Structure formats: structure tokens, C-alpha cells
Amino acid sequence: MPTLTKLFTMQEASQHNTKEDCWIVIDGKVYDVSSYLDEHPGGDDVVLAATGIDATDEFEDAGHSKSARELLESFCIGELDPSSPSIPELEISSKKQPTEITQKLVDLTKQYWAVPVTIVGISVVMGFLFLRRK
Questions:
Q1: Does 3.10.120.10 match the CATH number of domain 7-80?
Q2: Using CA atoms, how far apart are residues 18 and 33, in angstroms rounded to an integer?
Q3: 117 in Cβ contact with 111 (< 8 Å)
Q4: DSSP for 65-112?
Q5: Domain extent listing, the chain
Q6: For this UniProt entry, which segments traverse the membrane (predicted)?
Q7: Can you give the pLDDT at residue 23?
Q8: Element (H, E) at 121
Q9: CA distance 31 to 16
Q10: Closest of 67, 78, 75, 55 to residue 4, by C-alpha
Q11: What digits encode the pLDDT tens for the residues 20-56?
């Protein structure tokens, strides 16, 4: 008979991201490593940086020993829920109407377009006159 474990979403696991309450996700399992942070040979900041994500690659890239892997299993509190998305869905919104400030900027640009064009025109004419004098 299979062992029943508690299921967590990535969102739930990512909320435990402090030194006092630190969960990490590796290979689909959720680990509460809060009590181990001070003892971690790489420092607590390395572990804290791996919260809120699937830290499998980071764990594998560090080249952990067999004893480190066995120690990790003692902190297992459950598994990642396979039915929940690992990345929260983004909310897609429709194009919004311009705000008051942006609308004023557009209106000013339409009204005073001649000013920068005039400056450029005068600069070009002055450049030709200056070059002609030489």
C-alpha cells in the first residue's frame, strides 16, 4: 500500500522563505530546512535563494554527497502537488485607456510639434551658411 504524503502547491512552498521558516522544493518533494540553515556548509543565503522555485538544478549543480542527500530526506514534509501549476498563471488584461498624464503629453506633443522641427531646421540652415563661409 502506497504511503500517503501531504501535498503542497509551489505557491504554498514559496511563502516559507525566511530564515525562521524555510521550505525548498527538490525533485518534486517539499523540505522544511529551517532548522538546518545555520549548519548548511554553503551558508543560509544559498538555501534562502532557492526558495519559491524548483531548486532541483541548484541542488544537483552543487554536487551534494550521498550523506547530504540522506540528510535532506530527513527534512521532507510532503510532495509538490502535480495537479497545480508550478508557475502561477499570469493574469492577462486588455489594453487600458491612456491615463490623464499620458493623454496630456500626447496632446502637448501634437500641439507643439513645430518647435523641435523649427530648431532642427534653423540648425541645418546655420550649418550650411557656416560651411559656405569657409
A1: yes
A2: 11
A3: no
A4: -HHHHHHHHTTEEEEE-TTS-SSPPPPP-PPPPPPHHHHHHHHHHHHT
A5: 7-80, 99-133
A6: 112-131
A7: 94
A8: helix 114-133
A9: 10
A10: 78
A11: 999 999 999 999 999 999 999 988 899 999 888 899 9
Residue 63 is given by DSSP the state: T
What span, in angstroms and rounded, lies between the C-alpha atoms of 13 and 80?
Answer: 9
Nearest to 39 by CA among 74, 2, 86: 74
Q: How many CA atoms lie within 13 A of 61 on its CB side?
A: 6
Q: Render pLDDT for 49-88 as a digit per residue (tens, 0 to 9).
A: 988 889 999 999 988 999 999 999 999 999 988 887 655 5
d(CA 82, CA 85) in angstroms, rounded, equals: 7
CB burial class (10 A; 0-12, 13-18, 19+) of residue 57? exposed
Quote the pTM value.
0.61
Cell numbers at 12, concatenated:
504554498
* One-character DSSP codes across 13-62: HHT-BSSSSBEEEETTEEEE-GGGGGG-TT-HHHHHTTTTSB-HHHHHHT
